[in-house]
Design brief:
The structure holds 2 protein chains of 2 kinds.
Chain A lengths: L3 E2 L4 E5 L4 E7 L6 E7 L6 E7 L4 E4 L2 E6 L4 E6 L8 E8 L10 E3 L3 E6 L1
Parallel strand pairs in A: 2-11
Antiparallel strand pairs in A: 1-3, 3-8, 4-5, 4-9, 6-7, 7-8, 9-10, 9-11
Chain B lengths: L4 E3 L2 E4 L5 E6 L6 E7 L6 E7 L2 E5 L6 E5 L5 E5 L8 E8 L9 E2 L3 E5 L1
The chains are: A mainly beta, B mainly beta.
């Protein structure tokens, strides 16, 4: 049962434009969400997170938006750079906390390609 | 600091065999989690070790077992390998109670079962 879903396997964006990656979830008990970035031959690296008490969290070029009523979150990258080309995963702790000892459930990922 | 390291990088086994994968956590970390990432899928939680005990477990059969040593390093063992066990196995380390931005993944071990 896929509790976190990323329906776009791939996305191509011109350098300098905005990249928008989407994620839907089914479990209304989820309280905290994370985005990870993964390069080939490397493990996922934490990118940005958001708590359900917020609807937006920003960190430099990266902004995550949360729409709890729609059970939807999105990651915006602006401006997109060639180094942003990677696979992006959204994830949620099963237990809902923001402590790193919770098991995470991941989406299937979106491969982002930035075109120079 | 070498970060999280995993060995071996790649491994090829045949059905029915047993395999052991190893993980050394980032210095100062005491918690190790293991994930399986099949092709085209996101990582799936296998289990987590803390204080040499399995603290949490995902929906994986008993063929998957693990161990954590006093130096916090960890092993993942898989018995009676199936073709479907072919995947990238990721290890993540953290300090108990820390937040997710302080959890680090290793590069993974690519297991191929023939």
């Amino acid at each position: 049962d896929q509790q976190v879903k990323q329906n776009s396997p791939s996305l191509s964006v011109q350098e300098g434009r905005i990249s928008i990656l989407n994620c839907d979830y089914t479990n209304s008990m989820f309280d905290y969400f994370l985005w990870y970035k993964k390069y080939p031959a490397e493990g996922p690296t934490f990118l940005i997170s958001i708590s359900s008490i917020k609807d937006k969290n920003e960190d430099g070029r990266f902004t995550v938006f949360l729409n709890k009523s729609a059970k939807h979150l999105s990651l915006h990258i602006v401006p997109s750079q060639p180094g942003d080309s990677a696979v992006y995963f959204c994830a949620a702790p099963i237990g809902g906390s923001n402590f790193g000892n919770e098991k995470l459930t991941f989406g299937t990922g979106t491969r982002l390609t930035i075109i120079p | 600091d070498a970060g999280v390291t995993q060995s071996p990088t790649h491994l090829i086994k045949t059905r029915g065999q047993q395999v052991t994968l190893r993980c050394s956590p980032k210095s100062g970390h005491d918690t190790v989690s293991w994930y399986q990432q099949a092709l085209g899928q996101g990582p799936q939680f296998i289990f987590q070790y803390y204080e040499e005990e399995e603290r949490q477990r995902g929906n994986f059969p008993d063929r998957f077992s693990g161990h954590q040593f006093p130096n916090y390093s960890s092993e993942l063992n898989v018995n009676a390998l199936l073709l479907g066990d072919s995947a990238l196995y990721l290890c993540a380390s953290s300090l108990d109670g820390s937040s997710y931005n302080e959890q680090f993944f290793g590069p993974g071990t690519r297991l191929t079962v023939l």
